[in-house]
């Protein structure tokens, strides 16, 4: 995959789309083969390979006992971003009114927006987006699409998993179809 | 980074107060059961008390460890750091420190009722007692955090943690009981510092081992 490319991943349930993204992000171990990002192999002992990528999964990946603002502060700290402009990003994803609300009280759509806010703050070179539109309303989908356009202009590398083939065809450079073994 | 993770655990616990409260109530309940079940001569109680104390600490630690690691499982919160450029060994060390803080806080709360309900005299060095509690609890949580990390993805983790922890931590329980018994009998520290060294060694060795292997064991 080339840098700056925007690839859609599709395939039936159980074909391994999420597994592939989890392996690239380092959440899941690799039984055989290699994943290389630039010069570095993805390896649990090499945290630096995870520095420039962010996995936006279809599960939450946030602490329910912390507020939206606290989750963003915590995650941005993990990536060494000490003074991120969290308030502005929360306004951008329209979560500014819920910034001090515990994440366990967020709706599915709000959670997706918060994860989108995380991706905007971290500003990684590689984005792994697993069913990013799940739970989003029409406004949320428009917001997400506008952010994807911004990322595209910034030449971010994206792998997007979606069951919506039409959406993938419109919003990605090419589609890779995974087949079940 | 270490402080970052510890503060996160403290913040969640400060808000919910689930871990310390449940450990304190559980510890107090076991103490009451022991006090009612062992209504024997005071001298016999004094002989059994060190062992009973460490049984209470071991049981409450399991409860605390289970809850502390459940925070990472809820809504796959652990993905936030397993996919981040952080040394996962640091996460293990932060969990050991958080668990140590929580278990020690609950111990402070239930140890006074333990002495009152079991009618135990407190005529010993409090500094030495604090040292035994610190090293013993540290050894239990360093083993416990490693086991909790291994079972983090397991479906039956609530059952697996005690099943794996009790045999692994039995040398700690024995050494801690020996230290505490000798202290209660007012023996000089030179007679029992060997057991204290065992506790310290367990704490350090398992701490280092956990730091080295945690990277691999938290992957799915």
Chain-wise SSE layout:
The complex is a heterodimer of chains A (181) and B (220).
Chain A lengths: L5 E5 L6 H9 L10 E2 L2 E2 L11 E4 L11 H11 L7 H7 L15 H15 L3 E5 L7 H16 L3 E5 L3 H7 L2 E4 L4
Parallel strand pairs in A: 1-6, 1-7, 4-5, 5-6
Antiparallel strand pairs in A: 2-3
Helix pairs in contact in A: 2-4, 3-4
Chain B lengths: L1 H15 L1 H20 L4 H32 L5 H4 L5 H30 L8 H25 L6 H12 L1 H15 L4 H29 L3
Q: In summary, what is this structure?
A:
The complex is a heterodimer of chains A (181) and B (220). By secondary structure, chain A is of the alpha/beta class.
Structure description:
The complex is a heterodimer of chains A (181) and B (220). With 181 residues, chain A is α/β, with parallel strands linked by helices. Chain A contains six helices and seven strands; from the N terminus they run βαβββαααβαβαβ. In chain A, β5, α5 and β6 form a beta-alpha-beta unit. The longest helix of chain A has 16 residues, at 138-153. Chain A is globular. Chain B is mainly α and 220 residues long. Chain B has one domain (2-217). Chain B is built from nine helices and no strands. In chain B, α3 (42-73) packs antiparallel against α8 (170-184). The A-B interface holds A 22, 25-29, 44-45, 47-51, 53-55, 57, 59-66, 70-71, 74-75, 77-80, 102-104 and B 1, 4, 8, 11-12, 15-16, 71, 74-77, 79-88, 215-216, 219-220.
Largest interface: A-B, 36 and 26 residues
Class per helix and strand makeup of chain A: alpha/beta
- The overall average pLDDT of chain B, rounded, is 89
Secondary-structure element sequence of chain B? HHHHHHHHH
Tally the helices of chain A.
6
Name the assembly state: heterodimer
Number of strands of chain A: 7
Count of discrete alpha- or pi-helical segments spanning 4 or more residues of chain B: 9
Helix content of chain B: over 70%
Biggest sheet layout of chain A = 5 strands, parallel
Give the terminus-to-terminus CA distance of chain B. Answer: 23 Å
Main β-sheet of chain B: number of strands, strand sense, barrel status? Answer: none
Low-confidence stretches of chain B: none
Q: Estimate the global geometry of chain B from the Cα principal axes.
A: globular
Percentage of β-strand residues of chain A: 5-15%
Rg of chain B, nearest Å: 18 Å
Fraction of residues in H or I helices of chain A:
25-40%
């Amino acid at each position: 995959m080339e840098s700056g490319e925007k690839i859609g991943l599709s395939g039936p349930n159980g074909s391994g789309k999420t597994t592939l993204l989890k392996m690239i992000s380092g959440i899941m171990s690799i039984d055989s083969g290699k994943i290389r990002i630039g010069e570095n192999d993805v390896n649990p002992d090499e945290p630096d390979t995870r520095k420039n990528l962010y996995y936006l999964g279809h599960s939450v990946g946030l602490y329910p006992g912390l507020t939206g603002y606290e989750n963003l502060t915590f995650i941005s700290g993990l990536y060494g971003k000490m003074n991120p402009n969290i308030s502005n990003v929360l306004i951008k994803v329209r979560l500014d009114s819920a910034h001090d609300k515990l994440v366990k009280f967020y709706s599915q759509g709000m959670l997706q927006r918060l994860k989108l806010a995380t991706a905007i703050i971290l500003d990684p070179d590689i984005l792994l987006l697993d069913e990013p539109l799940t739970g989003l309303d029409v406004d949320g989908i428009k917001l997400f699409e506008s952010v994807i356009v911004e990322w595209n202009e910034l030449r971010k590398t994206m792998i997007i998993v979606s069951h919506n083939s039409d959406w993938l065809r419109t919003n990605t450079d090419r589609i890779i179809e995974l087949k079940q073994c | 980074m270490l402080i970052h993770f510890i503060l996160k655990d403290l913040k969640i616990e400060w808000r919910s107060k689930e871990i310390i409260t449940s450990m304190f109530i559980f510890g107090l309940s076991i103490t009451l059961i022991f006090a009612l079940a062992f209504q024997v001569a005071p001298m016999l109680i004094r002989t059994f008390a060190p062992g009973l104390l460490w049984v209470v600490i071991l049981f409450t630690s399991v409860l605390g460890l289970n809850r502390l690691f459940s925070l990472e499982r809820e809504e796959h919160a652990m993905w936030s750091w397993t996919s981040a450029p952080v040394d996962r060994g640091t996460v293990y060390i932060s969990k050991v420190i958080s668990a140590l803080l929580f278990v020690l806080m609950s111990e402070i709360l239930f140890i006074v009722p333990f002495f009152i309900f079991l009618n135990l005299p407190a005529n010993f060095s409090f500094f030495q007692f604090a040292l035994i509690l610190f090293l013993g609890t540290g050894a239990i949580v360093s083993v416990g955090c490693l086991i909790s990390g291994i079972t983090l993805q397991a479906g039956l983790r609530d059952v697996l943690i005690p099943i794996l922890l009790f045999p692994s931590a039995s040398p700690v329980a024995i050494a801690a009981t020996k230290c505490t018994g000798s202290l209660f009998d007012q023996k000089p520290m030179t007679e029992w510092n060997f057991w204290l060294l065992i506790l310290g060694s367990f704490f350090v060795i398992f701490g280092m081992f956990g730091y080295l292997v945690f990277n691999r064991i938290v992957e799915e």
